[in-house]
Specification:
Blueprint (H helix, E strand, L loop, with lengths): L2 H10 L3 H11 L5 E7 L5 H13 L5 E4 L10 H12 L4 H11 L7 E4 L2 H7 L1 H11 L1 E5 L9 H10 L2 E3 L1 E2 L5 H10 L4 E4 L14 H12 L4 E4 L5 H10 L3 E4 L1 H7 L4 H20 L1
Parallel strand pairs: 1-2, 1-9, 2-3, 3-4, 4-5, 6-7, 7-8, 8-9
């Protein structure tokens, strides 16, 4: 792809905010589906195919985890996937090369999920410029303190990356309001206290938090951590979520069987989830 085509593809990619606005405009009840997968597990070739499969089977946005050696917010399934990817030599530069190749073929914006230390190590502005050029449009940094968020948010705004901040289920109202004001693209509500992972039930307190957040902001709210079944996705939509984020259940399916079977499985699961939040 020559430089002119690369530039054109970057311009044509929609932002996270534009994706949510499109969903709200087309159907006020249309809830976004955001699958999460770990880059490099089982390999980057399969990751690239998985992004396309998800895009073709109902994903509105896609969260792509960059494998990291000390993933404090990740549960056992995603930690194991990151460890396998790192052991196979998966690094940030390789992940971004893959993203640059596949992102022009996707409708869904890519949101990178990574920790703060790798960003600081590379340099905030160089990191943001590099992921933008690769085609990413959003960023989630789970260990980014609210008090330090502006050091990332300001250059991100200038470059075109939307940084989404997380709200914990234990966050007081005053802190939720501050996070909602600064978060870009949408607000990420963590549905459970603790790390990511599949759970049989979602805490009922999430419904109350969603109502409280809705009284404080009109920004889209995505709910993640612990959602692994279509019924839970439906529950989140009924409680007022603008997006449902599903991670471990996708990562687990990608790690099972042959890559071909795994890709088929995540495609069907993605369809099932989208159907659950569309009806």
């Amino acid at each position: 792809m020559d430089n002119k085509l690369v530039y054109l593809s970057l311009i044509l990619m929609i932002s996270v905010s534009q994706c949510f606005e499109s969903l709200r405009t087309s159907d006020k009840k249309n809830c976004a589906l955001i699958p999460f997968i770990t880059a490099g597990d089982p390999n980057l070739e399969t990751t690239a195919k998985a992004l396309q499969v998800l895009d073709q089977n109902g994903a509105d946005l896609i969260e792509l985890g960059v494998p990291y050696s000390d993933p404090l917010a990740d549960g056992p399934v995603i930690q194991a996937a990151a460890t396998r990817a790192l052991q196979k030599g998966t690094r940030l530069d390789q992940v971004l090369e893959m993203v640059a190749t596949v992102s022009p073929t996707l409708k869904a914006p890519i949101i990178l999920f990574t920790y703060y230390n790798p960003i600081l190590h590379r340099g905030i502005k160089p990191f943001l410029e590099q992921i933008y050029q690769a085609g990413a449009r959003g960023l989630v940094v789970p260990d980014l303190p609210l008090e330090e968020a502006e050091t990332l948010l300001q250059p991100a705004r200038e470059i075109g990356i939307e940084v989404t901040l997380l709200v914990a289920p234990t966050s007081p109202k005053e802190r939720i309001e501050l996070i909602a004001r600064q978060s870009q693209g949408f607000i990420y509500l963590v549905s459970v206290t603790g790390v990511t992972g599949m759970r049989s039930q979602v805490q009922t307190r999430v419904e109350d938090i969603l109502k409280e957040m809705r009284s404080l902001t009109d920004k889209p709210i995505g709910v993640g951590f612990g959602i692994s079944q279509p019924e839970q996705a439906t529950q989140m939509r009924n409680w007022g979520a603008d997006a449902v984020i599903v991670g471990s259940a996708f990562v687990k399916r990608l790690a099972q069987g042959t890559p071909e079977q795994a890709l088929s499985d995540i495609g069907q699961f993605c369809q099932d989830l989208k159907t659950a939040i569309r009806n």
